[in-house]
Queue: 2 jobs
Job 1
Amino acid sequence: MKIREISISTYSVAFIAALALSTTSMTVAAHGTAKKNSEVAQTEKKEPTIGATKLNDTLTLLSGVGGFTGGNVVVSNGPDGMLIIDDKLEAMTAKLTAALNDINPSNDLKFVLNTHWHFDHAGGNAELGKSATIVAHTNVRKRLSTPQKIDIFKKDLPPSPASALPVITYDDSVSIHFNGEEIKVTHMPSSHTDTDSIMYFTKSNVLHMGDLFFNGIFPFVDIQNGGDVVSLTKNIEKVMGIFPADATVVPGHGPLATMADMKTYHQMLTETTANVSKMIKAGKTLDEIKAAGVPKTWAGYGWLIDVPTWNGIIHSSLTR
Ligand SMILES: [Zn+2]
């Protein structure tokens, strides 16, 4: 499968470099004209592209190859037209559109579903929303229509244009009946943000987790914007109890996964949280906790979010 060929190091370097720069730098990094540091220089060598992995006759996974393009996208293509879950970074919109044209030259894109509001998952909204209908949780519309900050990545985000805003919103859940199956969309409160939904294709048995799930790496949990590690961990446990053990699981970031991979991720969340909790109880300072590392099993998870940052995110969740 193409997704397995992604070099984790290229992917993470590109991600960190892109996120470390200012708001406009996403475009800059993606086009390879920034020369702010060596990490960015490394992304300049080749432009990231979008690779397609067919999941079945109807569904295709679109993922970044050779660099950071934004979150994983699932496309449903069939007699009703096309529907996509998430639409990557704004700078990738032309490549995303080309990938959709490859799947179906008539590119009859009817719906865009957003798993959450982040710019690397809803970046294509402004362009694609001019013709397709955007569906997302109520808080996605709230956040996209007002100024937002993500301090950890030094991001000051202005309100999005009207075309980028969800037209259909929901508070708890909604179903979309499309291409011969029901897509069950369920809001997961205070997880990665306060805007998250997971989306399940009932016939295909494919579950898109959005950024509740980073496969094989520490997740970014946006504490500033309603995320919470403890609540996220409980929600992952809930999901594992609801959906079939043989479901195909699409993480927000990282390679295509299984429920067993999500179980491993849940174990990582639980054990790294217990580790930080123990240190807080022992009276350690934030700096000491950041420097203390993680249990050995999870040391290799510090790619997108490094170990000190991850311990800091857990600390924020446990101490507010
Ligand atoms: Zn996100």
Job 2
Amino acid sequence: MPLEPPPLAQAIEGYLASRPRAARWLEWLAGRRYRLATFPDRPRPLVVVAHRYYDPAKAEQVAHAIEYDWAETPPRCREAYEDILTRAPGLIVVQLRRKNVCGCLGHRHVIVKEAPFCEPHDAFGDAAVGEMDIAFDRVESWLALPLTDTALDTQFIAGSRLREFHDQQLRFRLLSILLHETHHMVVPQATEDVVRERSLTFYREALADYVEIARATLSFTIDRSFSRLGKE
Ligand SMILES: [Zn+2]
């Protein structure tokens, strides 16, 4: 999140902290936690990652994708979602799960079920509330683009760079699913093919761009060491 959180984020933080102690205690005991995240280039939508107490690292991955990785994607990736994000509900609750019984990566919810957000509140201002779920473990094992994903793997030497690449890949997947479900929310009549095509294009292009930059910096390091050797 930027240094100064947008007003809606501040209002939601205040609201979550000011609710009756009993309600907060029940949630806390039930293991419910919230992590707020906003895209760096727009104040809305504000994303509330609702998760269980034992999954803060997973919630952090989703937040990192929104707060940092989004800005690293090529401009055309972000432009493709400009209209959707502008029309999206001001507040999007993401119920982060490990798995879904149905095996899906995520769904948008027609009715908001997350307790603090299912009833209107002054703190939301004029922001509408939307909700979706994302099944983290399922996303982790998902081969979004089987051929591309495997081909890219071979470009990174096993070790820390491969690990870094896999983390980045996972965050782009999380981002593409968040955008996919937001697209469904904004344009409910859009067919699955259309929605999927756009989110897969986002994922494919974001990943290709990352690989290109990573390779450029890698060969830069190699070139420098070669030229240094040449001088000696
Ligand atoms: Zn879909």
